[in-house]
Design goal:
Elements: E1 5-11, H1 15-26, H2 28-35, E2 38-45, E3 62-63, H3 67-70, E4 77-80, H4 88-97, E5 101-104, H5 107-124, E6 128-129, H6 140-147, E7 153-159, H7 162-174, H8 178-187, H9 196-199, H10 202-216, E8 226-227, H11 235-244, E9 246-257, E10 260-271, E11 283-290, E12 294-301, H12 305-325, H13 335-338, E13 354-364, H14 369-379, E14 384-389, E15 397-408, H15 409-420, E16 430-434
Parallel strand pairs: 1-2, 1-4, 2-3, 4-5, 5-6, 8-10, 10-16
Antiparallel strand pairs: 7-9, 7-11, 9-10, 11-12, 13-15, 13-16, 14-15
Helix pairs in contact: 1-12, 4-5, 5-10, 7-8, 14-15
C-alpha cells in the first residue's frame, strides 16, 4: 500500500527547532496541497520540555529522550537541530544506521565531520538534507546542487554571517568603533555573549567549507580554509575605504584558479557599485558566477527561527517527495564525497593568493617616509594605485593609506615585515584585501 504521509521527529527545540515545528503545524494544509502528501510531526526531543516556545503542540509530543525519535520505526526523517558536534554526530549516525533520512542545520558538524556522515548515509542508502546549514532562508544549497548544475562555477562570494555584517554596517553608518558596534549587536541579540565564532570568521568558514565542496566537487575541507576575523578593523579604516569608493564586508570567498581552489574568509573591501556591497544589517547574500549563467546574487535573512525553519522544511519535503517516489539519493549530498578523483584537486595556499590591497601605515611625519615605504613595496613587485595622507602631527605619527594593485599575498607579507621594522613606522601596518573586477 502506497504511503500518503511522511513522519518526522525533531531533536532540539531551540530557536530553529521551534520555527520548524511552527511551520510544519501551521502550514500542514499548504504542504499537503502542494506536494500531495502529508508531513506529520510525531515527536520532539529536548532537554527542556517545560519552557514555552510559542508553539502549540499535541499532548505527549515532547520528550527528553532522543531515542524516542531516533529509534522510532515509524519516523522516516530525523531532524537534528540541537547544534554542536557531540552528541549531535552520534545521534545522526545512529539515525542513519537505523535507515532514517536526516535533515540538519548544523554547519559546524558538517564542515568538520561531514565526510564521515555522508559516507554513513551512502552505505545506508539514505539522504542528508542540509539546506539550512548555510545562509538561513536563502536556498543557496539547492542553487548549487540543482539550479546551476550545468555551470562550471568560477567564484562564490558570500556575506554569510549576519553578526559581522551588522557590526560593519553600524561602524559605517554611525562612525562608531568595533567594540561599541559589538556591544549593540549583543544587546539586540544578534551576537552571543561569547561572539568569537562570528567575529573571528569561524562561522563563515564552516559555511564556506560546504559551499566550496558543492561548487568544486571537493571533500569537505574546513582545515584548509584561511580564516581571519574583523576585530582589527577600525572606524578610520571604514572611512578611508569609503573615500576610496569601497565598503568593508566580511566575505567568504572560494574561486577556481589554475593553481587550485581558493577558500578564504577575511574582511574585504568591495566597490560601492557592487550589489553585494549594499547588503547591510543582519542580512546575508551569496554571489555566484557560473560560466554559462554569468553573475547571480541571492539575498535574504541568514538566520532566525522562521527563515532557517523554512529551509529545514524545504529539505523535509524534498526528501519526502523522493520517499514517495522510491527514488532516494537522486541528488548526491556532497559531490566531493562521491566523485572519483575529487580529493586530488589542489587547495591553493593563502601565500599564493593574489588580490588588490589596502594598507594603512602609521608613520612619523617626516620627509621621505612615503618614498621609503613605496621603495620597499616596489622591491616586492607591489605597485601603488592611489595614496591618501591627511593631517600633520609634529613629532607624532599620521596614517598613510595606500591602495595597491594586484599583488601576491606572500610578497605583501614580506614587504610589510620590512616596512614595519622601519624606525619611521610606529605601529604594525593594517591591511585589507580588495576584490575589484577592474584588476
Amino acid at each position: 500500500m502506497k504511503k500518503n504521509s511522511v513522519s518526522v521527529g525533531i531533536i532540539g527545540f531551540g530557536t530553529v527547532g521551534s520555527g520548524t515545528a511552527h511551520i510544519l503545524i501551521t502550514s500542514a494544509d499548504v504542504i499537503r496541497e502542494r506536494t500531495g502528501f502529508a508531513v506529520e510531526l510525531k515527536r520532539i526531543a529536548d532537554l527542556d520540555v517545560t519552557r514555552d516556545r510559542g508553539v502549540k503542540l499535541p499532548a505527549g509530543m515532547l520528550t527528553t529522550d532522543p531515542a524516542a525519535v531516533i529509534d522510532d520505526p515509524d519516523i522516516d526523517i530525523v531532524i537534528e537541530l540541537m547544534g554542536g558536534i557531540h552528541p549531535a554526530k552520534e545521534f545522526m549516525i545512529r539515525a542513519i544506521r537505523n535507515g532514517k533520512h536526516v535533515v540538519t542545520a548544523n554547519k559546524a558538524l558538517l564542515a568538520t565531520e561531514g565526510n564521515e556522515l555522508f559516507a554513513e548515509a551512502e552505505r545506508a542508502g539514505v539522504e542528508i538534507g542540509f539546506e539550512a546549514s548555510v545562509a538561513g532562508g536563502i536556498p543557496i544549497i539547492k542553487v548549487l546542487r540543482e539550479g546551476l548544475i550545468a555551470n562550471r562555477i568560477i567564484a562564490v562570494y558570500g556575506i554569510i554571517n549576519g553578526t559581522s555584517n551588522y557590526i560593519f554596517t553600524k561602524m559605517s553608518d554611525e562612525k562608531v568603533e568595533f567594540s561599541e558596534a559589538l556591544k549593540e549587536a549583543q544587546r539586540l541579540g544578534y551576537a552571543e555573549a561569547d561572539p568569537a565564532f562570528d567575529i573571528e570568521g569561524i562561522d563563515s568558514a564552516h559555511k564556506l567549507t560546504i559551499l566550496a565542496s558543492l561548487a568544486y566537487g571537493i571533500p569537505l575541507s574546513y582545515n584548509e580554509v584561511y580564516k581571519e576575523g574583523i576585530t582589527r578593523i577600525t572606524a578610520q579604516d571604514i572611512a578611508f575605504a569609503a573615500e576610496l569608493g569601497y565598503k568593508v564586508k566580511l566575505l567568504a570567498i572560494t574561486k577556481a584558479t589554475n593553481e587550485g581552489i581558493e577558500m578564504r574568509v577575511h574582511p574585504t573591501m568591495v566597490p560601492n557599485e557592487y550589489l553585494i556591497s549594499k547588503v547591510d544589517g543582519v542580512f546575508n547574500a551569496v554571489y555566484v558566477q557560473g560560466d554559462a549563467v554569468g553573475a547571480t546574487l541571492y539575498y535574504g535573512r541568514g538566520a532566525g527561527d522562521m527563515p532557517t525553519g523554512s529551509a529545514v522544511v524545504a529539505d523535509i519535503i524534498d526528501i519526502g517527495r523522493n520517499v514517495m517516489c522510491g527514488s532516494t539519493r537522486r541528488i548526491p549530498g556532497i559531490p566531493g564525497f562521491v566523485k572519483p578523483g575529487a580529493a586530488a584537486k589542489k587547495i591553493k595556499k593563502m601565500d599564493d593568493v593574489e588580490s588588490m590591497y589596502y594598507f594603512r601605515f602609521s608613520a612619523f611625519d617626516e620627509p621621505g617616509v612615503l618614498s621609503r615605504i613605496s621603495g620597499i613595496l616596489g622591491n616586492y613587485n607591489i605597485s601603488i594605485a592611489s595614496v591618501i595622507q591627511k593631517g600633520r602631527s609634529i613629532g607624532g605619527s599620521v596614517p598613510v593609506v595606500v591602495l595597491a594593485h594586484r599583488s601576491r599575498e606572500k610578497d605583501v607579507l614580506s614587504a610589510l615585515r620590512e616596512i614595519d621594522a622601519l624606525p619611521v613606522v610606529s605601529e604594525k601596518t593594517l591591511f585589507i584585501r580588495v576584490e575589484d573586477s577592474k584588476e
